[in-house]
Structures are given as structure tokens and as C-alpha cells.
Amino acid sequence: MSWPAELLFVPQRTDADRVFLVNDPQVAIALGLIPQKKRRYSYAEIRKNQDKLVHLHQSASMVNTEERGAVENEILRIFSNFIDCRMLSATFSFARLHSDFSISDPDIAELLGLPRDVKAFSFLDILLKAERCEAVLTDLKEKGIDQSSAKEEMILALAGHLFDWGTQHRYMPFVVIPSAQGKEGLWHSPGDAIDQEFNSEAMRSEIVHWRDATLVYGRDDQAGYDAAILAIKQSLAQRETPRVKKQRSKMAIELFYNRAHLFFTEYKGVQNE
């Protein structure tokens, strides 16, 4: 598999890869980096000093475009690459376990239709149980939030995390899911698909397949990954519009959905320096 696939599905594996080009050693020093002979730095190194990067970016942004020199342009490029990399690494975070969605009380897990013996869940795990959460919160609203039990407070917290995550993961740059509403030319990132069209059964199904692809990729399960990508291709073929079908015939959709060929193209924001 290629480096961009690692970034998307298991971003922690790419943290130490030196893929960020910093041409000017003085800029590297200003960022708190030790100048490297090959001028390449990792996401982890830049993240450690991101406060300095943000400060330098703010200063460079205040300079009029026509007055910017090589240093200002270098800083702006590095900042843009860093943000793009961070956003891409969060593309499939909805599929991964996160402490925001941990459930310590097995009774609450059971109430939501989740396994009692599991404590760690993902955004998607909880989102798929949103109707059960809503039922509990509707009852809570009727009796008053000041009368909430510990279980209801935990479900209220889960609902809050769902809202926060849904807001934070919109407008992501990895746009690979065509609209399920038949809107010609409208494609979504996974986060936008969840935000805008999760009520569609076809879209929910595809999001689940992307979740499966993410998890099995992380386990280095090639057969499982192939099966998940095949399910995505089949789902897409069932609902593609004439325009998407025409695009697919021209571009060979296998570039996007067959194995990991999509990710063999270098990501312009990080590698094409």
C-alpha cells in the first residue's frame, strides 16, 4: 500500500515519516526544528512546534501578497501542507475507537443496543444508535435536565460528543462519495456524507463499508480490505447517476475503489514538493 493510504487509514504509522519539505534552514530553526541535510521533516516534528508555526503563519499572512518574500511564502506553504495533512489524517476517524465514545457502564451499552462487555466505541458506533439516544433524551427533556440520572447524563455527554464531532469533521478535503440524492456533480467527504445524507440507507451502508475498510486495513487484512472496497464499488454502481457512470467509464473507477490504487497518486500537499 502507498503512503497516502497509510495517512488516511492508519495515520499514526506516518507520524515519523519525513515528508514535509522545508527549504530554508532559517525557517526550520524558527519552527524549532533541527535543520536536516535533506530538508525533510515529519508531521510529529512539526506538530510538536505547531504553536510556532501558527504564530509565523499569522505574521506571514499579514504581509501583502505582492510584498511577500521567499520566507513568507515558505511559511504559508508549510502551514497549508500541515493543515491538509492533519485533515486527511482525520478523514476516517469516525471509524476508529475514541475515548469520547467510551461507555463504562454495561447497562448503558445495553440500553443503546451495544455489547455489554465492550467499553470502547467509535463515533460511528454511537451514531448508528442515535435513535436510542434520542429516545432517552426526549424522556429527559420532559422531566427536566435537573432530574437526570447518572445514566442519562452519560448519554447526554455522548450526544454532545456526536454533535461536536459532526461539526469538526465537515468540509474535509478527501471527497470520494457521490451524493445519494441523485445530485449531479455533488461529491462528499465521509464527514460531509454523514452530516448531510446519513438518513439515506445507501449512504449509511457505504459509510459502514468505509468503516470496515479502515479497520481491516489497520489489521493488515488484505482479504477483508478487498471485500470492503468491493462492497463500496457495488453500492456505488447501484446508485450512480448517468453523469457519474459516464465519468466512471472515462476515468476507470478502479483508480478510486479497487484495492488501494487510489492512493498510489502522490498527495500534492505533502509529497509533491
Describe this structure in words.
This protein is globular. It is mainly α. The protein has helices at 3-9, 25-30, 43-48, 50-61, 70-89, 106-111, 123-127, 130-143, 150-168, 190-197, 201-218, 222-239, 242-251, 254-257, and strands spanning 18-21, 40-42, 97-98, 121-122, 177-178, 187-188. Strand 5 and strand 6 form a beta hairpin. It has three domains: 3-90, no CATH class; 94-168, no CATH class; 177-264, no CATH class. The strands form three sheets. A two-stranded antiparallel sheet has the order 1-2. Helix content is 56%, strand content 5%. Helix 4 crosses helix 5 (70-89) and helix 8 (130-143) crosses helix 9. It is built from 14 helices and six strands. The two termini are 21 Å apart.
Largest sheet report? 2 strands, antiparallel
Enumerate the strands of the largest sheet in spatial order, edge to edge or round the barrel: 1-2
Q: Structural class, judged by helices and strands? A: mainly alpha
Q: Total number of β-strand segments?
A: 6
Count of individual helical segments: 14
* Unreliable parts: 251-273
The arrangement of helices and strands along the chain is HEHEHHHEHEHHHEEHHHHH
Q: Percent helix among the residues? A: 55-70%
The chain-level mean pLDDT equals 85
- Domain module count: 3
Overall 3D shape: globular
| Alpha carbon gap, first and last residue | 21 Å
Query: Which oligomeric form is depicted?
Result: single chain
Report strand %: 5-15%
Radius of gyration: 22 Å
